[in-house]
Specification:
The chain is of the alpha/beta class. Helices cover 41% and strands 21% of the residues. The protein contains eight helices and twelve strands. Strands 2-1-3-4-5 form a five-stranded parallel sheet, sandwiched between helices. The protein has a four-stranded antiparallel sheet with strand order 6-7-8-9, covered by helices on one side. Strands 10-12-11 form a three-stranded antiparallel sheet. Helix 2 packs parallel to helix 3 and helix 6 crosses helix 8. The radius of gyration is 20 Å and the shape is elongated. The protein starts with a strand and ends with a strand. 28% of the residues are buried.
Length: 230
């Protein structure tokens, strides 16, 4: 099993460095983001096993970051620990209501934090949260849990919408899917979005998939289907 990858969201550079040092010494891999906006962007680009989230961040705060993560179906089960100087009961309650797994008040013991991280990751594996859910077609593998696409043995970087679109097509492989259905699955039915938006993203997805992109077939006047036999 590879080392767990953690996303550390902390705007204090000294604390971020200290966290990174202790976590990597304990066997974790870390990526540090100094703002909530950057953290949300990194979640789309990479796969993480757990998020350490500060509350008082420049721009959007940790509570809002937590809320946006939990609203995204891809990350709704991603373990999160809040690290904050806000130790009031109302803050802890708000954090847990938003869906965090643990709440640690600064200053904290790095050793205790590491034990808490390990306990959450162990519980998550026991409950099946980290068991990869794979979608495959030929040399294409899509890991829905880790938000990772492997094509011919190499990781393929997709935007969040491209990833969701590919997953929607693969989940119903061989079935024709209307543009409206794909819009509903991928964009959660935003009526301000024209269904032709699907066409633009399909074009980009085909380009990134190369030869495998030929498996995404246009169903004239209706939508698209992923046909592995094509």
């Amino acid at each position: 099993m590879s080392d767990p990858m953690l996303l550390v969201v902390e705007d204090d550079p000294h604390l971020a460095q200290l966290l990174g040092f202790n976590l990597e010494r304990a066997g974790f891999k870390c990526h540090v983001s100094s703002t909530g906006e950057e953290a949300l962007l990194q979640l789309v680009r990479k796969s993480f096993d757990l998020v350490l989230l500060d509350v008082m961040l420049p721009g959007i705060d940790g509570f809002e970051v937590c809320r946006q993560i939990r609203q995204n179906q891809l990350f709704k089960d991603l373990p999160m620990i809040m690290l904050t100087a806000k130790g009031e009961e109302i803050d802890r309650i708000l954090g847990f209501e938003l869906g965090i797994d643990d709440y640690v008040v600064k200053p904290f013991s790095p050793r205790e934090l590491i034990l808490r991280i390990r306990a959450i990751l162990k519980r998550d594996r026991r409950h099946g949260g980290r068991v990869p859910e794979q979608l495959t077609a030929g040399t294409l593998d899509v890991d829905l849990v880790r938000h990772q696409v492997i094509l011919e043995g190499r990781e393929l970087l997709l935007t969040l919408m491209e990833f969701k679109l590919l997953a929607a097509l693969l989940k119903r492989k061989g079935e024709a899917q209307s543009r409206e259905k794909l819009l509903s699955d991928v964009w959660d039915v935003d009526r301000s979005i024209n269904t032709r938006t699907i066409d633009t993203h399909i074009t980009r997805l085909r380009e990134k998939l190369g030869e495998t992109g030929r498996m995404i077939k246009t169903v004239r006047g209706f939508g698209y289907k992923f046909d592995e036999e094509a």
